[in-house]
Amino acid sequence: xxxxxxxxxxxDIGYRGYDGPRLGRxxxxxxxxxxxLRAAFGLGRPTRAKIAPWGLGAVAIVPAAVSxxxxxxxxxxxxxxxxxxxxxxxQAIFGLFVAAQAPELVGGDQRHRVLALYFSHALERxxxxxxxxxxxxxxxxIVMGAPMLLLWVGRILxxxxxxxxxxxxxxxxxxxxxxxxxxxxxxxxxxxAIAAFTPRRAYATGVIIALFIVGQGVxxxxxxxxxxxxxxxxxxxxxxxxxxxTRDWLLGRSVPxxxxxxxxxxxxxxxxxTAIVVSLAIGLVxxxxxxxxx
Amino acid sequence: MPLIATxxxxxxxxxxxxxxxxxxxxxxxxxIGLVGANGAGKSTLIKILLGLLxxxxxxxxxxxxxVRRDGSRIRSLVGYMPEHDCLPPDLSATEFVTHMARxxxxxxxxxxxxxADVLRHxxxxxxxxxxxxxxxxxMKQRVKLAQALVHDPRLLLLDEPTNGLDPAGRDEMLELxxxxxxxxxxxxxxxxxxxxxxxxxxTFLLAVxxxxxxxxxxxxxxxxxxxxxxxxxxEGSDRLAGRLADAGAAAEVDGRTVLxxxxxxxxxxxxxxxxxxxxxxxxxxxxxxxxxEDLFRDDAPTESxxxx
Lengths: 294, 308
Fold this sequence. Notes:
The structure holds 2 protein chains of 2 kinds. By secondary structure, chain A is mainly alpha-helical.
């Protein structure tokens, strides 16, 4: 083809300025929240970044689905999980989820020194902290809330009397939504407070696993094997204990396996502990990002 | 309105380290070279201008905004390219630069469009969709420049933009910086410890040493022609100097070269005649220029530092 007939040509159109809107801090914070939430599930990232969140998410939702299948075939009274004890029974999964994903959300920006870029934009340091905390809590809310919601919808649809079941299950809605919200806030804030303090992924993951997984074993052993104040206060090392106590206090109905059942502490004490620990964790994350050298 | 102004700006880290020591300066828009040895306080000054570091004493304004009070506003108008690595390896250049554009408040569609524009400007094409972890140092430096440019800033702060690049990469990066400053008209501060690079792109020079301002002046005044003629011959520089002195010119031998005072045009003819008469092999004859290096010598010759 002779060159004269070439139909396309690349033009250098030169540098163009930008006169459009600049949406400021709130928008930047929201953008960081949404992109971090995507990162928590490995979206837009290589496949290996998806393995942990999707694998653990599947492990959390499969029992709910199996539970539905069992109650659908055997009858509603044989459900292995209730709304009340689902989060307690599955706590190891959620512990592993934050151990894998909290360092993913905040470690890389410190390790690769991306923070210097964030803090040289319209975004303030506190905005970064809030966006990352929000993303961690939202990611947990999805992983904790989706199986609960599946249980709820399944029970209604599985019932022969749809309208009647809807009426019955409506009363459980605060538990189905409130419990995951409370647990996501507590677990997410504590895990992020740990992860924010080190650029090293392995350290953060190790400490979070120690707290949630080892803490679970310690809490149960202490609750069974000791008496008096140690039996009451010792299990509090596991965040799921004070969260379960608070859930019990706010939404009612105790979990028989939980150390809360055998403890002498008033339920309101768990509520107080949750309020203090969550505020402390959020404060620590904000403090960390105020102080960190970018 | 000065682009950047500082008044007795001081930054101390603990009690032992003083990074900036009463720095006072004012510069107008252009491509400004910020030159000094490693540890002279260049990066500290840039970080204070961005509001990333609090000054210990003194004040500073950028685009007429106070760095202590209006940090957020300044940051929305400024693009910053740090000296160190600052890119997440998992993301592609397109994703990362778009993300940073949104951090500057650009709506999603505008962020995408600007990202495509600036990545083309810095010369990243097909590779922009691949994860950054596979990029060469040169490509990473381009991404760093692109993220600083994506929100169309009024001021660019570039900290050692040629860090880690090979000679060809340096040339390309300097050309990009020059285009950004001249053709796009964005005021630019380039920090570097390499005088040769600064010399090639800048119009104005700030020289800092040990946290103090050594000199601030248009680049031309640093490298003006001086009143000295350099004559280099293969051998016989002693004889040449002797004959020139006999003829009334102030000449001084410096190895193979002879330095001749140049009060007017006459020594040119004299040198030509004497060289011809002695039959010397002339290598070079040129008027000496002030050298930037002289700035950082303790015994800086007066003819170069005072030439203004």
